[in-house]
Structure formats: C-alpha cells, structure tokens
Amino acid sequence: MAKNERWASRVGLVLAMAGNAVGLGNFLRFPAQAAQNGGGAFMIPYLVSLVVMGIPLMWIEWTMGRYGGGLGHHSTPGIFQSLGKSRAWKYLGVLGLLTCLGIASYYLYIESWCLSYAIYSLLGGFSAEPPAAFFDRITGQAPNEVFAVSVPGLVMFAVCIGINIFILSRGVAGGIEVVAKVAMPLLILFGVVLAVKGLSSHPDADPNMVESPWIGLNYIWEPDYSQLGNPAVWLAAAGQIFFTLSIGMGSIHCYASYLRKKDDVALTGATTAWTNELCEVVLGGAILLPIAVSYLGLEAVRQSVAGGSGFGLAFMTLPTLFNNWGPAFAPLAGFLWFGLLFLAAITSSLAMGQPVMAFLEDEFNFSRVRASWALMGMLLLLAVPVAMIHEQGVFSDFDFWVGTFALVVFALLEVILFAWVFGIDRGWEELMRGSELNVPRFFYYVTKYVTPAFIIVILLAAVFKPSVGWDGFFGSIGSGEGVPAWEWAGDSVIGKILHKDLVTPEGASPEVVSYYESLRSIRTYDRLGLIGIFLFFSALVALAWSRKGTQERGTPA
Questions:
Q1: I need a labelling partner for 231 at 20 to 30 A (CA). Which of 40, 70, 238, 290 fits?
Q2: Residue range 282-293, pLDDT digits in tens
Q3: What is the pTM for the complete model shown?
Q4: 133 exposed, middle or buried (CB, 10 Å; 0-12, 13-18, 19+)?
C-alpha cells in the first residue's frame, strides 16, 4: 500500500522531483517564450515570478504533501482535507486528480511522438523523409479532417502508456526513483553534448551554416528593456513558471507525502527548483534556437517562434538540420535530441500517474498492481479521443482547461488553504520542521500576501483577456487613443467558452464550415467529459470518506 512506501535516498527524491519539473516546456517552450518576450529582459519578470510565486508554491506543496502523508494521505483530496476545516476541501482537492489524469492523457501522446522520432532518427529515417511527412504518418493528420487515425501512432501511444504503468507498478522507490536516477543524468548528458556541438560549430567550417549559433544564443539573452513595461511579458513569465515547476497539479504533494515527518522540505524543495532552472535556463536556452539560427538565419527563426512555442522547430525542422552534421553524427544527434525530450517527458508523466494510483491505494485499499491496471484503463479511455481528435480538438482543449487554467485555479486554492485556512504560522512552522535551510522571513509575508495576489492577477488576466492582448489594450490607453472596442481573445477563458478561437472563416467552403462546426461540438462534449471526470472522482471521494466514517463507528463497512 502507498502508506508503507518511502523514498530510498535524498538523491533519488531530488532527481525524481526534478524529473517531475523538467519536462518538454523546458526545452520547447522556454527558449521561444524568452525570445518572443524581450530576450534577456524576460528573465527579470521570470525571476520575479519565480521568487514571489514559484518558490513559495513549491514550498507550500512540499509542506502540504509531507503533512498529509504523515496522516496517511498521498493524494490531494486527503491532503487538502487534512489541512482544511471544512469538508468541502477534499472535493476541491479532486482538482489535483483531474489535472494529473487529464494532462497525462495528452502528455503521453507527445511522449510517444518523442520516442517515435528518437527511434526513427537513430535508423537514419530523416535523411530521406521530411519530418513533417513523418509527423503526419504517425498522427494520421490531414487538412480539414476532424478525425485522425494512425495505427503506428496508436501503437506507440499504447507502448508509452504501458512503459509508464510498468514503472509505476514497481513502486515509488523501486520504480520511479530507479528511473529518475538513470533518466536525469542521461538527460543532462544528452543536452550537454548537443549544446557543445551546436555552439562549437562555425560558418567557416560548415558551408551550410548561414550565421553563428552564438547569434541565436544572443537572440534569447540580449535584453529588450522596452518590453518590461508590457503586461503581456509579465503574464508570459508567470505562465512559464507554472509550466516549468509543475506546480498546481498535485504531483509534488504526492511525491512529498512519502517523506518522513522530519525530512527536510525547504532545502530539498529549493534544490529541486534550482536543478530545474539549470536545465531550463542553461540547457533549454543553448540547444534549440542556437542550432536553428545557425542554419536558417535569425529572421526565419524569429517568425517560427512568434507564437511562443518551439514545437515546430523541434519536430518539423531540427531533424533536417541535423543532417548538416554529416551522415555519421546526424542520426545520433537526432536520437540524443528526441531521447532527451522522451526522458524529460517520461519523468514528468510518471509524476502525473502516481497521485491517481495513490488515491486508489489509500482510500480503497487497492494493491499496487490493481491500482496500476485501473490507471491504465483510465488512460486508455482518454487516449482514444486525444489521439483521434488532436488538431484543435480534444488535445488542445484538454491542454487549455486542465493543462493551463486548472493549474492556476488549483494554485490559488492551495495557497489560500495553506496560508489562510491552515494558517501561515502553522504552515511556516511545518515548513521549517527538520529544515537545514534557514528560509528568509521575507517568504513568510510573500506567501501570505504577495503570492495569492499575484495568482489572482494572472487568473483575471486569463479570464478577461481582450483580442488585442493586454499590451495592445493598455498601449491604446497610454497613447491617448482611448479604450479599444472589446472583443474576447481566442485564448482567454471566456473566449474559449464562446469558441472565439474556432470562428469559421468568411467565405469558407461547405467542407470547412462543417469542419469548424464539428470541432465546436467536439469541444463542448470534451468539456462535459472533464466535468464528468471531476464528478466521478468526487463521488469516489464521498464513498471513501463514507466508508471511513462507518469503520470509525465500529460498524461493518
């Protein structure tokens, strides 16, 4: 059972926690976000967000997890209930299970792409086939087609689910920790090899290069201080902190619940955070864009990352660029790159699956094997719509609602619970129990006042974002043009509800009109599905606590 498990070593714990945090966003999202939002100046709001929101939330989740674990709870419904005074907190904790399961359902699909690309790269496949053609082949994607079916893609998806389930069935120390001790050093090694190779190349030695890779590195880090007055840059930096630390989803609580009462959470949590920052800021910034700029030129790369994501460069462009490194090294380079992404993905997806299994073990006395089979059933049930309707459909909708919006809501709930319901004094005392790090008192006040206020601003900005963006909105006011006509942005919460990102183009053919109508209907159903999952877990929570109450009264369960 989950309550009998412990981490075998602090090193294993730190690597597992770092693996949870170090994910695809470190290598695909961070460099593009930095480049798009002021380059080196982006690091100022990024570091501010890390200090006033990221680190406090990290410590909150570590502390809550250890506290709840001491009472026999290893998932957020029980952990929330152990800190809260109201019975409602355990139902709010269900959001942690929903986010973990929902994100895992599509994250594992991307993980399967990474594994497919790694294998195909090693076989030299991209020397003959364009990456875009390979991507279409493993996803079944076609223009204006709602449903996409690829048997090889579904097989690899199932393989990745199977790998995760097998590791999770081995337990916390025997499965997750063992994998983390191997995967994290390999990930860093792969990243260092690619970064050194990419940055040591020079146009004089390689006629295919159009610019020095250092221009790409400078593009990320050269500060554009005029962007510091842009509210959109600050929101982007805060959003990146959520993505990079894996906060607001219940996985940190779960991992921390396997600590002993006096195990250090302050120093270990800080070590985990800075390990993640090392991978993101140093490795994440030194691979993707420098290599791309050296062969494509700065302007082409600038246009490619205009949307704030490096996905296109990573999967559609980089495999071809590696061919410039020669027939001997190109397959290895592709394997190292996609192997790095696969390792980053699997260490994160394991952390998403563990809370669901822990919930079943704690509250329903499931064995480890039985819980792993139950998790696999849930993932396979969600895998079909995710894999078959992923372009602007279930995949992207899940990513917004459970992979973005729900994280912010959950973070706000947990900081209120920790600092205001449980009480900041009790919370601070719990954080400092067994600590080898003297946390500055500054964070006491930040956690109670600044962090929740910061999150509320992020939440309101996401809900009410205008179509011109907050930079355009405030820019119009500042320039004396007045308040612009209000239209909801397609990526705002209200815009998503109203399908503003799925407006049928004017003059569209009947085929295209039908395509958009189908997507809007599918999104409505998948949102109802997410509500259904939340209600399902809430019903399980109610049943579990009802059984506990019956047993405590000494009557048959």
A1: 290
A2: 899 899 999 999
A3: 0.93
A4: exposed
